[in-house]
Every structure is written in structure tokens, then in C-alpha cells.
Amino acid sequence: MVRQKAEEAGDVTLDAIAQRAGLDESTMSRLLAGRTTPQTASLVALKTAYEISLDVLLIVEPVEPQRVPA
């Protein structure tokens, strides 16, 4: 959702997204890749920058459990 809203706003690079939200580029990269859990301040920054509701930002896509070979 963040990438879609960013593109609609004309922000097509990671740097542009990070700048608009006021976040570090490395933080933005980890957030978009799902490699970190966002802090409240990051969620509020993205909400404000791209007018995305917090409930939408908090939606987590289900992950298939990985099977461990016996």
C-alpha cells in the first residue's frame, strides 16, 4: 500500500519515499521489505506523508508456515 500511494504522489524511488516520510532510507528499505517491525513513529510518519490510515498500515499478510524436514 505504501508503494502504491508513493507512486501516486510521484515518489518512485526509495530515497523519495524516505524523504517525504522523514525517515532514513535504510529504515524505509527494511520496512518495505518486511525485514523489521515498524515503530509507532514510523507508522505515523507514513500515515501523515501518504494519507494512509493506520489500520491499513497494520494489516499483515499471512505467511505460510515453513515445514522443517524430519
How would you portray this structure in words?
This protein has 70 residues and is an all-alpha fold. It has one domain (2-57): 434 Repressor (Amino-terminal Domain) (Orthogonal Bundle), CATH 1.10.260. It contains 5 helices and no strands. The chain has helices at residues 2-8, 14-21, 25-33, 40-50, 54-57. Helix 2 packs across helix 3. It starts with a helix and ends in a 13-residue tail after the last helix. The mean pLDDT is 90.
Overview features:
single chain; 70 residues; mainly alpha; 434 Repressor (Amino-terminal Domain)
What is the topology?
Layout: H1 2-8, H2 14-21, H3 25-33, H4 40-50, H5 54-57
Helix pairs in contact: 2-3
Short précis:
This protein is mainly alpha-helical. The chain has helices spanning 2-8, 14-21, 25-33, 40-50, 54-57.
The averaged pLDDT comes out at: 90
Helix content: 55-70%
How big is the Rg?
14 Å
Architecture per CATH nomenclature, i.e. the level-2 architecture: Orthogonal Bundle
Number of strands: 0
